[in-house]
Amino acid sequence: MRAAARRMRRVVKPRSSRASRVGQAVLLVMGALLVLSSWAVASPPGSSPDEDWHLASVWCPTPLEDSCVTRVQDDGVTAVELPTTIVVAAACTAFRPEASGACVAGLPETPTWTTRVDNGAFPGGFYRAMGVFIGPDVTTSVMAMRVANGALAVALIGAAAALLSAPNRRLLAYGGLVVLAPMAVFLIASLNPSSWGVTGVTAVWIGLHGFATEQSARRRGGLLAIALIGAALAATSRGDTGAFAALVSLAAAVLHVERHRADWRTLLAPLLTGSIGVAGFLTGTHASAVTGGISGSGPGGRGLLLDNIVALPALLIDSVTGPLNWLDTPMPAITWVPVAVFATAVAFHGLRSMTWPKGLSLFGMVLAFCALPLLLLQVSGAPVGQEIQGRYLTPLIPVILMTALWNPVRGTVERLSRTQLVVAFVAIVTAHAMALHTQIRRFVTGLDVGGYNLNRDVEWWVGPLSPMTTWFLGALGFAILAAALFVVSRPTAQAPQDGDDGVAQPAPASSEHRAGFGVQEGRTHGAETLPQQAG
After folding, report:
1. CB neighbours of 362 closer than 8 A, spacing ≥ 6?
2. Residue 428's closest CA among 186, 187, 198, 182?
3. 3-state SS, one letter per residue, for 194-230
4. What is the per-residue pLDDT for 421?
5. How is residue 193 annotated by DSSP?
6. Residue range 364-376, pLDDT digits in tens
7. What are the pLDDT digits (tens) for 112-134?
8. 3-class secondary structure, 524
9. Residue 23: Cβ-neighbour burial (10 angstroms; 0-12, 13-18, 19+)
């Protein structure tokens, strides 16, 4: 009887564990969709940065003459004819934090002319894809596009999480969730091409990282496909995110140089994603901005450079917690302070373990993160606060954090303690809830109206549920999603199967130990012996 019972436990327990993992995955996906859908309907058309340009470019993708009625102005610039809502919606609320979205709702559908449209400056793939969702009503079409972009991010990053082993899922959760709100989630659920940039660059790095560390051929093939899709998204949305895709491909190759040295054919993966990124960067006009600047006013002098170096931290922090919309919706301190603190703490936590490949990879990305805006500001002759916005750098944030967290010696990420997890959970859930509340308040009544109840004195709203219900579901969805911090931090009780749990395998230990410096986890450090097992 006892032997039979043991056999039953061996059969039933894995099935129960598998069912539990499926249930958790479904809940996390539902939470992510609730979050992104809430952000998608929280603001009217024209609310995200330069959305008048992006709206016109979706309705009139290049070549302009084939998609819309056009005329050439006296100055030689091509104008397109579009519904007034598309052209004027942004002017209703941009730079006017006290203005609700009521103005947008009252705009006519009569046609008008605009030159604010892409005519080759952007790669164009994003605009053509969004055109699939164009319907008879502009507002409904815009909401559908935002929801679609959010669903795309959930599908791609969710697929990567499903293919990753437990340590790599922990890496994705720790490095991604802490900096998801407010800027990244706002961009993902928007009609700005940066939506694909954030999703794509993250997918490139986590796909290449998984390809280099997972043991199952099936999983590695799936993760490579995700990296390639991510590179295509980044390259076809913006030129600069194409460059970022190439940068993180190189960074991933350096991080896993020992793996590639053991089998040089694996280098084809970052070579492919990097090539796609470079192709996107060279499409459009983003490449010329590196040498010619953005404003055309000419390069600045030494004084401007020194002033910009002093002011640079403000721009870098804005890439995570900066003001939303047309830079007219500042985040409350209860949002930006804990997010900035925990992002810094997570990165510092990861620096406990360091090897030369990890150090070079991390240094290269941080250098680009800091030097690129300085370079563009210098050649444009512009101070911090002009021309370059923090959101341009947002795609690099989760990748930098995940690189800092990865322990290449043990092939894992050290778990946070239960106390650390609870504090982080409460902090980021509260930060997101207040960010979403501020965003909904911004357009329901304008920021000149205060109070907790978003259903009071409503001036604009088009969501299927009330503002307060939308806010509650979005906040609840983020809490469900943030629960992944606890899920990925549980010790592994069972032996790994097909790479699903246990330690992801890095390069050969002997090579890494030769390359390493600093604290080596899993070895005696002073009087403390660090644990060997990771799940």
Report:
1. 251, 400, 403, 404
2. 182
3. HHHHHHHHHHHHHHHHHHHHCCCHHHHHHHHHHHHHH
4. 95
5. T
6. 999 999 999 999 9
7. 999 999 999 999 999 999 999 99
8. strand
9. exposed
**Torsion sign, CA atoms 356, 360, 361, 366:** positive
Q: Which two tokens stand for residue 57?
A: 């470019």
What separation in angstroms does the CA of 65 have from each of 61, 68, 81?
9, 6, 11
Model pTM greater than 0.85?
yes
HSE-up of residue 495 (Cα within 13 Å, Cβ side): 1
pLDDT of 520 above 80? no
C-alpha distances out from residue 314 to 211, 322, 370, 394, Å: 35, 9, 11, 14
Beta strand residue intervals within 38-77, DSSP E: 70-72
* Interatomic CA distance for residues 398 and 369, integer angstroms: 12
* Mean pLDDT rounded to a whole number for the chain: 89
CA angle 133, 226, 240 (to 5 degrees): 70
CA angle 167, 171, 177 (to 5 degrees): 140
Q: Which residues contact 246 (CB under 8 A, 6 or more apart)?
A: 273, 274, 275, 277, 278, 281
Alpha-carbon span 249 to 204, nearest angstrom? 7
Angle formed by the axes of helices 333-350 and 418-444, to 10°?
140
CA angle 115, 119, 122 (to 5 degrees): 120
**Partners of residue 529 on adjacent β-strands:** 524
**Residue 437: both structure tokens together:** 């509340």
pLDDT band at residue 23 using 50, 70 and 90 as cut-offs? confident
% pLDDT > 70, the chain:
87
Model pLDDT for residues 226-276, shown as the tens digit of each residue? 999 999 999 999 999 999 999 999 999 999 999 999 999 999 999 999 999
The amino acid occupying position 517 is: F
Amino acid letter for position 213 = T
DSSP string for 470-520:
HHHHHHHHHHHHHTHHHHTTSPP-S--STTSSSPPP-S-HHHHHHHEEEB-
Residue range 340-349: average pLDDT?
93
Our measurement of the distance from residue 39's CA atom to the centroid of its chain's CA atoms, rounded to an integer in Å, reads 14
Report the alpha-carbon distance of residue 440 to residue 116 in Å, rounded: 27
Phi, psi of 388 (to 5 degrees): -105, 125
Cα–Cα distance, 466 to 471 (Å, whole number): 9
CB of 52 within 8 A of CB of 108?
Answer: no
Give me the half-sphere count of Cα atoms (radius 13 Å) on the Cβ side of residue 366.
13
Residue 528, strand partner residues: 525
For residue 106, what pLDDT band results from cuts at 50, 70 and 90?
A: confident
Query: Kind and range of the H or E element at 376?
Result: helix 356-380
Do residues 127 and 51 lie in contact, with contact meaning Cβ atoms separated by under 8 Å?
A: no
Question: What single-letter amino acid sits at 370?
Answer: C
Nearest to 287 by CA among 408, 496, 123, 416: 123
Structure tokens belonging to residue 366: 């941080």
